[in-house]
Design a protein that fits this description.
- This protein has 268 residues and is mainly β.
- It has three helices and 17 strands.
- Strands 4, 5, 6, 7, 8, 9, 11, 12, 13, 14, 15, 16 and 17 form a 13-stranded mixed sheet that branches. Strands 1-2 form a two-stranded antiparallel ribbon.
- The protein binds 4-(4-oxidanylbutyl)benzenesulfonamide and zinc ion (ZN).
- Zinc ion (ZN) binds next to strand 9.
- 4-(4-oxidanylbutyl)benzenesulfonamide binds next to strand 11.
Amino acid sequence: RRCNLTACSSKYVLSALHPMWQGPLVAPGGNRQSPIDIRVRKSVFDPHLKPLTPDYDPRTCSQIWNNGYSFLVEYDDTTDKSTLKGGPLEDNFRLCQFHFHWGESNAWGSEHTVDRRLFPAELHMVHWNSDKYSRFEEAVMEENGLAVIGVFLKIGKRHEGLQKLVDVLPAVRHKDSVVEFTRFDPACLLPTNIDDYWTYAGSLTTPPLTEAVTWIIMKQHIEVSHDQLAVFRSLLFTSAEEEVQKSMVNNFRVQQSLQGRTVRSSFT
Ligand SMILES: NS(=O)(=O)c1ccc(CCCCO)cc1
Ligand SMILES: [Zn+2]
């Protein structure tokens, strides 16, 4: 992965490649940071891992907004309508949003990699522990607070379910723009096989970088067309008022060291 280091002090690494990264790239004192490279042969099969049981209600979909890092599709998480259970999770988790990370070219863009293999983009479906906490903002600070499903995107045939989302992206081109978006079933973005995944204890990959995430990375990718991904790249990091417009690309974090963690697999 190309990473132009413009300045490198003891604690913080600044990178010209990641325009979004003004803040610290390494959380001070962090020992379970994300993303990571998943070394397949080093992952450990765990026969006790259960099948993942997502149960999403498309009626909880509410809006799309450009937060200046990515675009988020947000879900009403005031009740237990769109939930995730099973897999490595002991508790019930509520879907609050999903978003993506992508590159300026199809050669890179994902945050996680599999034996160093990069994908052009990565989907994150973000859930919080509603058995233990009463709102996302609380759960984001706790070590078992969040569960994020990661799905790799590959360039191939057009993804019909994604197209509804792609069609509204021009309406949220600028940072802080919001548009109503309803009745979108996020399950359509999951791969056909969700029984094969890797899981590990990690963090948010954007500020506040809190070490609150149980990561569940799908082995099977989904396919989207070149043109669909090109629309992601038409988004902007910058708001409508700013003079210089910056394309929303390369919104991924540099990889973090495993620091002794074990990545478990649900398959052999
Ligand atoms: N790329 S990620 O899935 O790790 C992720 C998920 C959610 C947030 C939101 C943090 C908001 C704090 O109030 C930030 C990053
Ligand atoms: Zn993310």
